Design the sequence.
């Protein structure tokens, strides 16, 4: 398979950056998208050119490191798939592919396709935890939780914090990420004591980081590799309003 | 005051205000449309209705003031959110594709800005009568301001009718996303009720658009006709 790639190249955070066109040949349909980029990089290195920098870690779709926008869609055209799990069989010989980083002011580009997503870490530090005194491990089933609530908590905890929600949103809003992290605790008894402070602090940090506001287009839900539901955003809106008027 | 400013600085709470003011404006539109459809009931009914509204006196100004406040808050807060969103992505994508976002949801600011301009024109046209001062001199047999004839004279102008019809279609576009979106912003999202909310959004938008459009269409089609004695200038 032969492809024409348009890739965002940027030397460092201060560089202006531009799209550069490359051609790759010998791509096998069983390769993942990142393996296709590996092939390109090997070719670039052999030609003494700078390889394309991109984030990746587990390549199993569970770490949230990979973060590419393919033809204007974060993580590419397949539903609930990270870019490392996207295979080249979804493309055909002669395709032109545009590869860009996740774009947001809060995710500055460090180099090429690598962005600094530590804004998400700071939001987590603001409240994405449950404070518990250390001690003996509590009995797993000591606190009864309904299956439905446990499932909802797990669905939200599935968020890998990749930032595709921000990248896809026309407002570069982080609402789906923050909502998932707020909801994973809001559905559990352990999350209740800090529920109000958590949502207030996390949303305040989200606004501070310079993400845009949500306009309910649900593009985030459509591209989320873990299928996080926008119902979590409604829950966060509810919780945030309640906490704002009572705290 | 400081608490209010802090309240409006938050993107989520700003949206709550946008949703609530929007809700009041939708309720107003339903009332305004129902009242105006009395054009189909004849000159007497329409003019008595208009006179009753004018007779509210102080209350009328309270309602007008509240509607103006809702509109201003709605517009200012959404524009501020729009500027925040624009600054949240300084470098645009070379290629951008949408998977789920609808055309109506992506054009809310533009339909909103155009609707604001339409509201200014509408007020100048029928309320202040600045564009057509002759409307002020119309009276019916009982000496009431002849709103019925004023509306017919207004919509007899095809260009004016077209502006109103186009504005109402734009309003439908706006409401199509707005009504459903309002529920999400106010935290109402439940798989059991989402289909009902969607149905309500589509139905209400359609009723409002069709209801308002039926008035200029009725005039142009001759279903609503001028009473005898009114001279068309």
Sequence:
């Amino acid at each position: 398979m032969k492809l024409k790639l348009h890739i965002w190249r940027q030397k460092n955070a201060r560089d202006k950056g531009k799209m550069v066109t490359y051609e790759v040949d010998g791509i096998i349909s069983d390769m993942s998208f990142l393996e296709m980029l590996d092939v390109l990089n090997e070719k670039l290195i052999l030609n003494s050119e700078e390889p394309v920098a991109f984030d990746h870690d587990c390549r199993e779709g569970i770490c949230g490191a990979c973060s590419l926008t393919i033809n204007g869609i974060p993580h590419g055209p397949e539903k609930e798939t990270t870019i490392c799990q996207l295979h080249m069989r979804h493309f055909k010989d002669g395709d032109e592919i545009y590869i860009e980083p996740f774009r947001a002011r809060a995710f500055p580009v460090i180099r090429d396709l690598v962005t600094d997503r530590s804004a998400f870490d700071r939001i987590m530090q603001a409240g994405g935890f449950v404070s518990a005194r250390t001690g003996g491990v509590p009995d797993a089933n000591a606190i009864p939780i309904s299956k439905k609530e446990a499932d909802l908590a797990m669905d939200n905890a599935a968020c890998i914090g990749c930032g595709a929600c921000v990248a896809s949103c026309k407002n570069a809003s982080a609402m789906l990420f923050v909502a998932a992290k707020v909801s994973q605790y809001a559905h559990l008894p352990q999350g209740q004591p800090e529920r109000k402070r958590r949502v207030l602090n996390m949303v305040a940090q989200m606004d501070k980081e310079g993400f845009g506001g949500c306009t309910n287009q649900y593009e985030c839900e459509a591209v989320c590799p873990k299928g996080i539901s926008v119902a979590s955003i409604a829950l966060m809106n509810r919780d945030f309003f309640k906490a704002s008027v009572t705290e | 005051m400081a608490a209010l400013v802090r309240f409006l600085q938050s993107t989520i709470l700003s949206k709550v205000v946008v949703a609530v003011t929007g809700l009041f404006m939708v309720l107003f539109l339903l009332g305004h449309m129902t009242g105006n459809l009395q054009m189909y009931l004849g000159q007497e009914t329409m003019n008595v209705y208009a006179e009753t509204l004018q007779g509210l006196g102080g209350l009328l100004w309270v309602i007008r003031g509240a509607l103006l406040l809702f509109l201003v808050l709605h517009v200012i807060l959404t524009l501020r959110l729009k500027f925040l969103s624009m600054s949240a992505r300084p470098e645009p994508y070379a290629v951008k594709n949408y998977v789920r976002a609808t055309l109506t949801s992506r054009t809310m600011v533009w339909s909103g800005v155009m609707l604001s301009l339409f509201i200014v024109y509408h007020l100048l046209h029928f309320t202040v009568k600045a564009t057509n001062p002759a409307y002020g001199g119309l009276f019916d047999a009982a000496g009431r301001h002849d709103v019925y004839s004023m509306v017919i004279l207004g919509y007899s102008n095809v260009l004016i009718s077209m502006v109103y019809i186009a504005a109402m279609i734009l309003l439908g576009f706006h409401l199509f996303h707005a009504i459903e979106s309002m529920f999400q912003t106010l935290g109402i999202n439940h798989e059991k009720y989402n289909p009902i909310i969607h149905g309500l959004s589509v139905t209400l938008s359609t009723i409002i658009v069709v209801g308002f459009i039926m008035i200029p269409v009725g005039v142009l089609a001759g279903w609503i006709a001028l009473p005898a004695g009114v001279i068309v200038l």
Remarks:
- The domain at 2-90+105-221 of chain B is CATH 1.20.1300.10 (3 helical TM bundles of succinate and fumarate reductases).
- The interface with chain A takes residues 7, 9-16, 81, 84-102, 105-106, 108, 177, 180-181, 183-191 of chain B (CB under 8 Å).
